[in-house]
Structure formats: C-alpha cells, structure tokens
Amino acid sequence: MKIKWKKRRLVILCAAVLVLVFLKSACSQKLAVRYYPIVSDKVEKPVILAVLTDLHSTFYGEDQGELVRTLQSCGPDAVLLVGDIADDEVPHDGTKVLLSAVGDIYPCFYVSGNHEYWSGEEPKIKQMIASYGVRVLEGECALLEVKEQTIQICGVDDPDGYGQKHRYDPEAMAEWENQLARCRQALDRKYFSVLMSHRPELVSYYTHESKDSKPGFDLVTAGHAHGGQVRIPGVLNGLLAPNQGWFPPYAGGRYDLGDTVMIVSRGLCKNLLPRVFNRPELVVVEIVPDET
Known about the structure:
It contains 6 helices and 14 strands. With 292 residues, the protein is α/β, with parallel strands linked by helices.
C-alpha cells in the first residue's frame, strides 16, 4: 500500500509540475518580436518600420531597458506609435521614459488611441508626445526620407475622440472619415504609403476598393485588439476584442486585403487580464524591393 501511495503521489506531483510549466508558458509576458516582410516595387532598398501599439504606459524594466534594447536590435528606419501609448488610468511615466529614449534617435510618428481620449487629457498628451520630437498625425501625411527614397506616412485620430466609449456615433465617424479623406487626397501613388490607424475593425475603409472609392494604402498598421486576449496557436487567433466582440476577425497578424496589407499588432500592454498564448509584441515591418 505504501508503495502504491508513493507512486500515486509521484504521479500527482509530476502532473502538477506539468500544469505549472504549461501555465507559465501559456501566460508568458516575455516580449516577443514579430517580423512581417512586404514586397513592393515602390522601394529600391529595404525599409524597416517598428510598430508599437497599446503600451498603456507599461514599463519594461528600468528605463524601459528591455523594450528599448529590443527596438534597437531591430535597426528600424522609423518608429510608428499607433495609439494607446499613454493611458487613461495609468500615470504617463512609462510613456515618457520610452519617448525620451527613442524620440531623438529615430524618426517617430504617432496617432491617438481611445484610451488617450478617455483620459480627458488628449491635447496635453499630444503636446507631451510632440515634445520628444515625435510627429503627431491628425488626418495628414508626412514624407519620410530614408535611404535616398521616400515613404509616405499618414495617420488618423481615434474616432473615440469625438464620440462615446465603446461605440461610434455619427459625429465621431464623420470627423474620422474626414481625416481619412484628407490622407487619401494627399497620397502620391509613386511613393509607398502607410496609414497609421488604431482601429483594425474599420478595415473596409482602408483598401483600394474602399467605401469612398478613393485610393487605398499600401500598408495599414493598427492595434487595439490586444491579440484577442486569449489565443490557441493554429486553432484560435483571438477570443475577444473591443469593438469586434467574440472571435474577432482582426485580432492580430497580417491580413492581405487586395492591394492593401494590414498589420495588426497584439500590443505591448501587461495588465490584470491574462494574455494566454498571446505575449506582448513589438512588430517589425520590412518593406523589401520586388525583384521579380
């Protein structure tokens, strides 16, 4: 009997260890880097864009060391800050430390997210971000000169800046569409174009066959979905995302939309909600020449 009980305890102990190992792996908050190559005949030399979304002022070690070192190792030509870099409940310290480390090193561009508006301090947050040398885009396009070629970086505010929490209202969408239209009017089709927009669920507006029949963008970068919070690799890409609901179609990853590619980052936030098989991520987009 004693031998059987010892064996039983050993089996239970091994099972418990395996469960703990599984949970540790599943709920890992270790920073991931995901690379997405995009082939284009509008560039002659590779261009590397680092995409940071949904930081929510999270810290990655002292002085944002882990995040900054990881970013530097990727060698970006520009950094795109695609909304919710600051937060409405968390102090802005993490945001300021990150911007102080990267704002003077890389060309940086920013668009707002919903949490920055929910803070009630959106103008102050934009001013703070701009003070670090970051270009704040509000329905406009900027030209990025890199490696003797030009990339067009466009950006729109988050529509929650004009409406209610968790929903769009007509006034909100009218202003958002007005910003998007200004970006499209500024497009020069000979340049590779990037649209920074926090919202992946507004995908029907981004493509070449968009609602207003105006030209689309070569690349759209978005966030907001937090990877659908819970993932099962190869089975479920996301369980629940804001403004998309259950089983969100645009939780994170690459989405080919005709001539437009949308990259949705799973974001950098570490919060109380568990991220299951959904590590915080730094997205790196490499635009490479079409050599065919």
